[in-house]
């Protein structure tokens, strides 16, 4: 059965091309789909920008500095989360590791780390941080890992929305996870207050780099196909503030810090009741273990 899709919004790429893309609503999955989606050979070009902050360590602008400051807090929270799991060998795979800050944080705290990062510039930066002489390694694609290698914890921090062929990729993630391992997936939530407030200017749509735009139902259904279950959902509190700041810039041509703070705060306060935070962290396990 072909999923029913209807037009939801038209959104512009503010980072690279200024092209417009449609968001189509998939009723079956309760998910938005970017249309048209760039071909595989075209997609990398949409990441070639100094403004694509997850691929740089820039601290030039106020937004850069804010991102780096929030990243430090986020790294501490992420480390606390993975340290809460009982693991046999403390083997971690971070998919979409960017410039390697999370990998380095984990490595410095006793984890054996491996990364996947398609962007060559970011990958080299990450390998330099980890030191090429160590056992740590960052691969360009998940399929480059040896078939028999599995991990206690696999993390995707704002990555799943970027990958084509969702079902195939989720199956690949499952194959890399130990039977009793933990998969952590963090993605934006298009049902949050800040998403509904900013609409086509919401920075977390980030078309066409974000191919998919998830709800809680869509994540649960997609992973259930691979006999995996969402066991916990928790918020990423800081995301609403940062996303609102970028969204203000897209909407008004300038960053209105106080307005962005107000919308970010309002989003978190409303989400205390609705549970629809700007970004959500999903803790996912194998069903049959």
Please describe what this structure looks like.
This protein is of the alpha/beta class and 289 residues long. It has nine helices and eleven strands. Strands 6-5-4-7-8-11-10 form a seven-stranded mixed sheet, sandwiched between helices. Strand 7 (151-157), helix 5 (166-176) and strand 8 form a beta-alpha-beta unit. The longest helix has 22 residues, at 62-83.
Break the fold down into its secondary structure elements and pairings.
Elements: E1 5-12, E2 20-26, E3 31-35, H1 40-43, H2 62-83, E4 91-95, H3 101-107, E5 112-116, H4 120-130, E6 137-139, E7 151-157, H5 166-176, E8 177-188, H6 193-198, E9 212-213, H7 216-224, E10 228-235, H8 239-252, H9 257-274, E11 279-286
Parallel strand pairs: 4-5, 4-7, 5-6, 7-8
Antiparallel strand pairs: 1-2, 2-3, 3-9, 8-11, 10-11
Helix pairs in contact: 2-3, 8-9
Task: Write the element-wise H/E pattern from the N-terminal end onward.
Answer: EEEHHEHEHEEHEHEHEHHE
Total helix count? 9
Structural class designation: alpha/beta
Fraction of helical residues: 25-40%
Query: Biggest β-sheet: count, sense, barrel?
Result: 7 strands, mixed
**CA-based gyration radius:** 18 Å
Beta-strand share of residues: 15-25%
Average pLDDT, all residues: 91
Distance between the termini: 31 Å
Biggest β-sheet: strands ordered side by side in the sheet:
6-5-4-7-8-11-10
In brief:
This protein has 289 residues and is of the alpha/beta class. The chain is 35% helix and 24% strand. The chain has helices at 40-43, 62-83, 101-107, 120-130, 166-176, 193-198, 216-224, 239-252, 257-274, and strands at 5-12, 20-26, 31-35, 91-95, 112-116, 137-139, 151-157, 177-188, 212-213, 228-235, 279-286.
């Amino acid at each position: 059965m072909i999923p029913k899709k209807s037009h939801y919004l038209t959104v512009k790429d503010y980072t690279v091309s200024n092209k417009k893309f449609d968001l189509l609503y998939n009723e079956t999955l309760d998910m938005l789909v970017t249309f048209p989606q760039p071909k595989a050979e075209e997609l990398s070009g949409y990441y070639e920008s100094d403004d694509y902050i997850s691929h740089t360590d820039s601290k030039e602008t106020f937004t850069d500095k804010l991102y780096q400051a929030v990243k430090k807090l986020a790294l501490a929270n992420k480390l606390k989360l993975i340290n809460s799991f009982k693991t046999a060998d403390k083997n971690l795979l971070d998919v979409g590791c960017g410039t390697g800050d999370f990998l380095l944080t984990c490595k410095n705290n006793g984890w054996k780390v491996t990364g996947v990062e398609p962007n060559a510039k970011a990958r080299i930066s990450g390998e330099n941080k980890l030191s090429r002489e160590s056992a740590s390694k960052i691969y360009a694609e998940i399929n480059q890992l040896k078939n028999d290698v599995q991990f206690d914890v696999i993390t995707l921090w704002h990555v799943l929305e970027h990958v084509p062929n969702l079902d195939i990729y989720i199956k690949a993630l499952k194959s890399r996870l130990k039977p009793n391992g933990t998969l952590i997936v963090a993605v934006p939530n298009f049902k949050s207050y800040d998403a509904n407030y900013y609409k086509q200017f919401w920075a977390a749509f980030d078309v066409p780099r974000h191919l998919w735009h998830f709800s809680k139902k869509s994540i649960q259904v997609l992973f259930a196909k691979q006999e995996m279950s969402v066991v916990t959902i928790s918020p990423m509190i800081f995301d609403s503030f940062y996303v609102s700041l970028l969204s203000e810039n897209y909407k008004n041509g300038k960053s209105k810090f106080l307005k962005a703070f107000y919308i970010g705060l309002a989003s978190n306060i409303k989400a205390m009741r609705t549970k629809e935070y700007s970004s959500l962290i999903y803790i996912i396990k194998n069903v049959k273990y």
